[in-house]
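debug: dumping io for the single-chain case to check the tokenizer round-trip. Nothing else runs in this session.
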Amino acid sequence: MKQVIKITLFFASAIIITQASMAQQGLQVSVNYNASTPLGSSFRDYVNKTSFRGLQESVLFGINSHFRVGLQSSYNDFYQKYERQVYKFTDGSDVSTVLSNTLQTVPVFAKGEYSFLNKGFLKPYVGLGAGINFVNYDQFLGGFEYDKHYTKAAFTGDAGVMVPFSRKSNYGFRLSTSYNLMPFNKEGVKNLDSWNVQTGFTIPLN
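debug: decoded output
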């Protein structure tokens, strides 16, 4: 929980800095619900269920009518509970218990986004980003908790569409899909890549 609070404060500070340095026309905020599916055999051995506990936020500044740059972050909480079974320890003892695996990822990206159309009812776009990923690895074996925090590189690519509420409105509904490339090789888990689906709203700040 402390790690999540630190990450939230980090992203909030980044938004404030971005707004202060780009206090001009063309700044917009997007807030989206984010569902994330783990990819890769190693990641799926640890957690194979889609995470429906996610959020994505971005603050982007319009360089021109097609291209925007700024910051984007997302949060997803992966969880998997395994039925009771017998686990063997290195000292030779056996323990019958329930295993719960959790993992939270919070990637923060420097993001660029290109809109193919700046007029009309549908505005398709693509985006690329690179940054850092805050990882919280948390495993419960019965009443025993093993908790570790890591900071790794992260990359993302996405495609979606923004639907304005009206033809002249800068407010709109967003629907997108993305692929997160997250290098990782700790605790027997290799890479935290995920496929994601987002839906939410875009709000101009000025």
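debug: round-trip ok. The longest strand covers residues 67-88.
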